[in-house]
Amino acid sequence: MLPDFELCCSDFHSAGLILTRELYGKLEKYAEFLVNYNEKVNLTAITEPVEVLRKHFIDSIIMSQQVDIPENSAIIDVGTGAGFPSVPLKLYRPDIRLTLLDSLNKRIDFLRQLCDILEIEAEFIHGRAEDVSKMPEYREKYDFSCARAVANMALLSELCIPFVRVGGSFIAMKGPNEDISLGENAVHILGGTLASVVEYDLFDEKRRIVNVKKISQTPSKYPRNSSQIKKKTL
Ligand code: SAM
């Protein structure tokens, strides 16, 4: 399903990453399961082999290069969908303690089966981020929260920052177009500060990784409920 090992190695190399035979084997299983499952349950519009390699796998793993992730960090992937960015990241960095969160149960079902096949340990949560982060067992418990392609920066901050402990980070994976500064007010209200926005090329496309450092506790009234969040972002 993926391009051959040599081509994948060369793409990994040009992104500054290393591909081992073992990782390649796991990514092949991931790609095959994803594309087959996608025929009955909608998970992704990206199914062409080179695109799966670049836009899903390398785009996810590249986070390990752009962000300093200490060993054994606890990471929650908010709105993970088919497991991006955190499942490829966990294959690259098996020490990471992973929690996968999505509001759609059919995606959580897929992820449970996928993680079985890949022999990955993870915690699975079916729920809306704005409800789950109010629960004491998940609130401010993570070193990192991350999200790709879930919402604009202001809304996403309200979904992701409450999960992060003070001293940890919220990582948003973004394309080139969104005005990140529109999320700055939300970031401050929720206890964060915009630490960096790193721009990089993913083959012929521009990408950005936004790193929000958590500097104080999120006030207990946040996140608001989903209808309030949608009505007006912070
Ligand atoms: N992160 C994946 C990726 O980059 O391919 C999936 C992106 S998909 C466009 C957005 C995902 O976020 C969907 O799986 C959706 O169910 C989930 N989602 C949206 N709002 C959410 C919320 N408030 N809480 C949890 N999951 C949410």
Short note summarizing the structure:
This protein is of the alpha/beta class.
Fold and architecture overview:
With 234 residues, this protein is α/β, with parallel strands linked by helices. The chain has a domain at 69-231: Vaccinia Virus protein VP39 (Rossmann fold, 3-Layer(aba) Sandwich), CATH 3.40.50. Helix content is 38%, strand content 23%. It is built from ten helices and seven strands. The longest helix is centred in the first third of the chain and has 17 residues, at 21-37. The N and C termini lie far apart (43 Å). The structure holds S-adenosylmethionine. S-adenosylmethionine is lined by residues 78-82, 84, 101-104, 107, 128-130, 148-150, 159. S-adenosylmethionine (SAM) binds at residues 78-82, 84, 101-104, 107, 128-130, 148-150, 159. This is Ribosomal RNA small subunit methyltransferase G.
H/E element string? HHHHEHEHEHEHEHEEH
Tell me about the largest β-sheet: 7 strands, mixed
Give the beta-strand count.
7
Helical residues, percent: 25-40%
**Strand sequence of the main sheet, in spatial order?**
3-2-1-4-5-7-6
InterPro entries: rRNA_ssu_MeTfrase_G, SAM-dependent_MTases_sf
Protein name: Ribosomal RNA small subunit methyltransferase G
Binding site for S-adenosyl-L-methionine: 79, 84, 129-130, 148
Function: Specifically methylates the N7 position of a guanine in 16S rRNA.
Highlighted features:
single chain; 234 residues; alpha/beta; Rossmann fold; 10 helices; globular; binds S-adenosylmethionine; rRNA_ssu_MeTfrase_G; cytoplasm; SAM-dependent_MTases_sf; S-adenosyl-L-methionine; Ribosomal RNA small subunit methyltransferase G
